[in-house]
Amino acid sequence: MTSNAIVVEDLHKRFGDVEALAGIDLEVAEGTVFGLLGPNGAGKTTAVRVLATVLQPDGGRAEVLGYDVVRQPEAVRRRIGLAGQYAAVDPNLTGRENLRMVGLLAQLVRSRILPRAAELLERFDLTSAADRPLRTYSGGMRRRLDIAASLMQRPPVLFLDEPTTGLDITSRNELWEMIRELVNEGTTVLLTTQYLEEADRLAGRIAVVDEGRVIANDTPEALKSQLGSTVVEMDVRGNGRAHDAVRVLSVRLSDRVEQEGERIRITSERGADVLIEALRILDDQGMAPDALTVREPSLDDVFLALTGHHAEDKQEDKQPELATSKGGAA
Amino acid sequence: MSSTAVSVPATDDRDRRIPFGAARDIYAITQRNLIAYRRVPQLLVFSTIQPVIFVLMFRYVFGGAITLRGLPYPYVDFLMPGIFTQTVVFGAIATAIGLSTDVKSGLMERFHSLPMARSAVLAGRTMADLIRNVFVVVLMMVVGFLVGWRIHTNVFGLISGALLVMLFAYAMSWVFATVGLAVGDPETAQAAAFPVLAPLVFASSAFVQVESMPAWLQVFARNQPVSVTVSAVRALVNGGPTAIYVEHSLAWCIGILVVFAPIAVRLYRRAV
Ligand SMILES: Nc1ncnc2c1ncn2[C@@H]1O[C@H](COP(=O)(O)OP(=O)(O)OP(=O)(O)O)[C@@H](O)[C@H]1O
Ligand SMILES: [Mg+2]
């Protein structure tokens, strides 16, 4: 049994009319990556801010490495790193000056600050830009510097709020690699993301958050097994043709077939084979799709499976026209 | 469900205290703000050009039309204490702009997550603005001397006057720290500041004698903090009874600090 680096119980936070956290429970094992996955406004940033002692919760309890975030914020702050959703750096300082400032404020011994800064600049490939003001950095460089700053005090617990938003693919892959390295060194990472793929690649466990609640908390494998590995979407336009197509497909396919207006969605474990079979079935009926997409499951698909509504939908339209014909919808 | 984190909270190396840690935090923030003033010279140029223009305008354009009653010295000697004071009053807007920019940029979020002294962000910001004010006021003194300003008392009077201006500047910085944190946006802070500052600076004894104003305005113009401070500085450098004005001005400065510093600290705790 491993111990928990982060424990959250029934956490509440309200902003006026908005209930940003409506009772969140989480446990994050030491030395693992935990993914908070959710759409815009789900409450991910609010949860991270409460855990990082930036915001006071209205109710519930949260502990980081055994320290209560409300009653022992100082002890928590000495053990965490936070890279917020928007790069929190001073545009007028150089990269090195930013890291030096954070090192001072993190109460590092003075003689260790500049060596640590140089090491992080090197690690994040910013050495050549180290002595330029941040105003001259690209968005991705700022983001990297922000994450470097959060590592100044070698925090055993690291919070990354949408760390790869705005990064190009190369930087993103490098960051993923770095997160894995940190975890190998024993760091516990809690990261938020809107991308199932990112959570899947990095996290040992994922909590799906929606409207301030955890609606699923499982391993990526378990979450995805509800979803299948391939999603085929076909648009079949014209009066009632989509409905006819769904009827045939759901009789002859063993996979989950759903209809949403003129769009048909097939979720399958069988990879691209399902596409060939589906097209053959339609062809037998003299039908052909007007548009076709094959992709991996996205956050939106997780949502649809878990809640029956799309990630972007708000309360107003919680019953979209959705006809599940077969298969293991949650 | 067992749900306590198992790691035993023990004080370890991470909880060691750096001696004078709070002072070091304030130093780090002050330095960072001063670097910004050095690296974005527009900020400094902007806050020095306006008072220089005022000196030239009032000295050479309006000065001739302004008649002073019963004063034994020329208009420029009346003007300069007003210039010093109005410079630091308008300059205080920079405190609001700086803090609201930090709120907007997300830096506050980082500061709140660091084990730093809670007071450091506000103390460091107001300290940096105080240092900037020293620089700007010294510069204005040089400009003053160049256009014929003379001191009628002595060096001691000049230094006391400068210190009083600095104290007033520091108090105003806390007013604008509050404004900046309350609005959380630099443009709004700037827009909100001017309508408040303009009457304080212009309906004052900074540029003209209060006696020249309509009676209803005189009550305000005579007692408000800018006028009182200008009068105190004038007395310190030009001679005349000083005690009453200096006491009055000190009372304003302390009153402003006592009211606004706690509000600013409260707002800072909530600013993310
Ligand atoms: N400081 C605040 N004042 C008022 N409302 C807030 C504040 N912060 C967050 N909210 C609201 O709380 C809800 C949750 O916001 P939060 O930023 O935690 O979501 P998120 O999951 O991080 O979303 P995103 O993916 O867009 O970053 C939203 O409805 C948001 O409008
Ligand atoms: Mg967010």
Provide the number of structural domains of chain B. 1
Give the SSE string of chain B. Answer: HHHHHHHHHHH
Q: Based on Cα principal axes, name the global outline of chain A.
A: elongated
Q: Span from first to last CA of chain B?
A: 34 Å
Q: Would you identify the CATH architecture of the largest domain in chain A? A: 3-Layer(aba) Sandwich
- Structural class determined from secondary elements of chain B: mainly alpha
- Oligomeric form of this entry? heterodimer
Specify the biggest β-sheet of chain B: none
List low-pLDDT spans of chain B: 1-10
If you compute it from the alpha carbons, what radius of gyration of chain B comes out, rounded to the nearest whole angstrom?
22 Å
Describe this structure in words.
The complex is a heterodimer of chains A (330) and B (272). Chain A is an alpha/beta fold. Chain A has two domains: 4-223, Rossmann fold; 229-296, Alpha-Beta Plaits (2-Layer Sandwich). Helix content of chain A is 34%, strand content 27%. Chain A has helices spanning 44-51, 73-77, 95-105, 110-123, 139-150, 169-184, 196-202, 220-225, 241-252, 273-284, 299-307, and strands spanning 4-15, 18-29, 33-37, 59-64, 67-68, 80-83, 157-161, 188-193, 205-210, 213-218, 230-235, 256-260, 263-268, 291-295, 323-324. The longest helix of chain A has 16 residues, at 169-184. Mean pLDDT of chain A is 88; it is low at 314-330. Chain B has one domain. Chain B is 74% helix and 0% strand. Chain B contains eleven helices and no strands. Chain B has helices spanning 21-39, 41-62, 75-91, 93-105, 107-113, 120-146, 155-183, 186-202, 215-223, 225-238, 243-270. The radius of gyration of chain B is 22 Å and the shape is elongated. Bound molecules: adenosine-5'-triphosphate and magnesium ion (MG). Magnesium ion (MG) is lined by residues 44-45, 85, 161 of chain A.
